[in-house]
Design a protein that fits this description.
By secondary structure, the protein is α+β, with helices and mostly antiparallel strands. Helices cover 29% and strands 34% of the residues. Bound molecules: coenzyme A (COA).
Length: 188
């Protein structure tokens, strides 16, 4: 194991102005938070993050049980905001119209500062670049704004250039650089 510092950005967006309406990609459903969906959020989180840079930064992303515990912890946090927590599902066409869960986002609202915190946004590899991530983010922002948030923020690893581009396109800007230390197994 070796200690590694990961450079991360805090990115924020002002919610004084209404964010654009989400464009929901066809064949995808966006499900508001329900307790019964916790397990699906956890599984999608695992599938979305397991092979990504953030799995080096946060060990919980490397196993499904870690993602389940993280999801339970988010759910229990004061300020957990169901309106900013969404699950995306792909609806296959007949003869296999089964739902395939493929995207997750969770939000927490600090009632004192009225700052919304996006926890993790993840889309499973086979469903990326179709607008699912953008739709999840805009749904979460609408949820924060509807609940009285004045700004929303997230943290992103500096190497995650695709995600940073996406956040900038939606109106987030970098407000601070932070460093996260992680114990990375050799060979990663
Ligand atoms: C970051 C992440 C959530 C983005 O999800 P996504 O569903 O691919 O996001 P979108 O499809 O909305 O946008 C991604 C790109 O696809 C493009 N796109 C959006 N809609 C599209 C469509 N209908 N057809 C084709 N391309 C489209 C966008 O232009 C965007 O490109 P850009 O970033 O250069 O502007 C996803 O890549 C992911 O889960 N990564 C791993 C986990 C992770 O790192 N999460 C972020 C942690 S901070």
């Amino acid at each position: 194991m070796a200690w590694t510092y990961f450079k991360r950005y805090r990115m924020e967006i002002d919610l004084a102005e209404k964010p654009p309406e989400p464009v929901l990609p066809p064949s995808y459903l966006f499900l508001p938070w329900r307790e019964e969906l916790l397990e699906h959020h956890a599984r999608v989180k695992f599938q979305s993050f397991r092979n990504e840079i953030d799995a080096n930064v946060f060990a919980c992303f490397t196993h499904e049980d870690g993602c389940r515990r993280l999801m339970q912890a988010i759910r229990r946090k004061p300020g957990f905001l169901p309106q900013a927590t969404w699950l995306a599902a792909f609806q296959g066409k007949s003869p296999s119209p089964r739902l395939e869960y493929c995207g997750t986002i969770q939000g927490i609202l600090d009632q004192e500062t009225r700052l919304g915190a996006i926890q993790n946004v993840g889309v499973t590899p086979g469903h990326r670049s179709r607008g699912v991530g953008s739709a999840l983010l805009l749904l979460a922002l609408a949820g924060f704004r509807g609940a009285g948030a004045v700004r929303a923020f997230l943290e992103v690893t500096a190497e995650n250039e695709g995600a940073i581009q996406l956040y900038e396109r939606l109106g987030f800007t970098v407000v601070r650089t932070v460093y996260k230390v992680a114990d990375v197994p050799a060979g990663r």
